[in-house]
Amino acid sequence: MTVKIAPSVLSSDFSRLGEELAAVERAGGDWVHIDIMDGHFVPNITFGPSVVKAMRPHTKLPFDVHLMIEPADPFIAAFAEAGADVISVHKEGGPHIHRSLQVIRSLGKKAGVVLNPGTDVGGLEYMLNEIDLVLVMTVNPGFGGQAFIPAVVEKVKKVKALIGDRPIHIEIDGGVSTANAGLLARAGADVLVAGTSVFKGGTEADYRRNIQALRDSL
After folding, report:
1. Model pTM?
2. 206 annotated active-site
3. Which helix (H) or strand (E) holds 32?
4. In what order do the strands lie in the sheet with 86-90?
5. Does the annotation mark 216 as catalytic?
6. What are the 10-residue block averages of pLDDT along the chain, 218 residues in total?
7. What are phi and psi of 68, to 5 degrees?
8. Catalytic pick from 73, 85, 173, 216?
9. How large is the greatest C-alpha to C-alpha distance in the chain, in angstroms?
10. Residue 118: how many other CB atoms lie within 10 Å
């Protein structure tokens, strides 16, 4: 299993977003994870579609857009148009998660469903034909740099069991480090979002070392 590393721009230098995107691509990142927060669904505000559109020319890496907003449906098309390749929505981000996933796919994008630490995997089996990714939060959404919640590893195993052999990614977001990356991969994860653990140091050489350290820990 090839595990993808998705640097999270939430931990980057916002004053140099274009440079940071180009740097993590050269440093070996596989996807770019973009956290969209609205100050309502989560207690923080980050980017809108216009910022995502401005980021798009600076890297060829897939944009993995995580909508921590409620309601999500009115903004899906705008983020798709802005350059998202994968769009993930929370089960709690609207009244009809199944319909939200159908909308994302109808726009030609890969669709993901997000499970918060306190959200059970129940009901996931009824969405498997509409999703390309399950994003399992290993911290509570809203802030970068939080401590990893170890109990969520068992949830990852449950998600993997539900997915079986289907071509659906299991992505982990929150507190990913060299200390737990291997554990998560063995539980079934194949995309690891890494913010602080990639961007610490602040230079492209640091990013390259940090990404390689994560790969070496798998």
Report:
1. 0.96
2. no
3. strand 32-37
4. 4-7, 191-194, 169-173, 133-137, 110-115, 86-90, 63-68, 32-37
5. no
6. 93 97 98 96 94 98 97 97 98 91 98 94 92 93 74 94 96 94 96 96 98 98
7. -95, 65
8. 173
9. 44
10. 10
